[in-house]
Amino acid sequence: MKLLISNDDGIFAKGIRTLANTLATQGHAVTVVCPDRERSATGHGITMHRPIRAEQVTSIYHQNIPAWACSGTPADCVKLALDALLDSPPDCVLSGINHGANLGNDVLYSGTVSAAMEGLLEGIPSLAVSLASFTHADFQPAADYVGQLLPQLTQLAQPLLLNLNIPAVAKTNIQGVTLARLGVRRYRDLFEKRIDPRGKTYYWLAGEVLEESDNDALQSLPNGLSPTQNSDLMVQFTTDVKAIKAGYITVTPLHYDLTAYNDLTKLKGLLPELIPMEKDN
To answer: What is the pLDDT of residues 232-248, one digit of tens each?
Structure first.
């Protein structure tokens, strides 16, 4: 298979090197295009008001892997690769392996997920892959599972973006693989006020994760479903946050359409009252 791999941790990150080298060793045609430095939590930002530079990198990856370090965001990297660097579209776009989980509403901020989402926007099956730890160093189980999953991904009737999170445990301790819905990870954001050496004030974002609750999980389900359907989904599919804690690899399909469809109907009847429009005399 022809694979494009990017990330948000940068060209030298161990996660992307493990993934790219593993897949190249398995016989896949791998190309790496990723940021030249860490670009975590950049979301789906793209660069419009300055040039994007890409330099080919050698001696970091498997000898058969062409690799570029890009000055832009993760989404920039995939856009640039698809439109300028590759001679033909890849069979799949991969992003990761990220240092740290991308669970629940983390996906809205994640550069890892956004790079994969850029592939889906172009109609290409995509994977976002994250190891649920900032300190655990063994990315091989995640890379091995991606190698097993890839052939099945391209056989689906329509392209999907799958968000994978792998528990930070030994391969023998992984409990299995489960489909999961997004949980809710609320953060208590704290901005620490500090003074720099020149006496000027700056703020450093710190914070802690507030664990999800059952009520949060219910509210996170799609508005286009009935209460009964919501309840059925809650029973059938656990959240990615809970599954990771239980030692499972989580697989969550994501889409770029954020429309709250059920609310369209509600707003249709309320629109004249909510947004009155004066007619010309």
So the answer is: 777 788 899 999 999 99
pTM over 0.90: no
CA 132 to chain centre: 13
Task: Give the tens place of pLDDT for each residue, 39-61.
Answer: 988 889 999 999 999 999 988 99
Neighbouring C-alpha atoms within 13 Å toward the C-beta of 63: 0
Alpha carbon distance 203, 180 (integer Å): 36
The helix (run of H) or strand (run of E) holding residue 232 is helix 227-236
CATH number at residue 124: 3.40.1210.10
Residue with the two structure tokens 């897949």: 23
Q: Which domain holds residue 119?
A: 2-180+248-254
Do both 157 and 207 map to the same domain?
no
In 3D space, the residue among 130, 132, 134 whose CA is nearest the CA of residue 168 turns out to be: 132
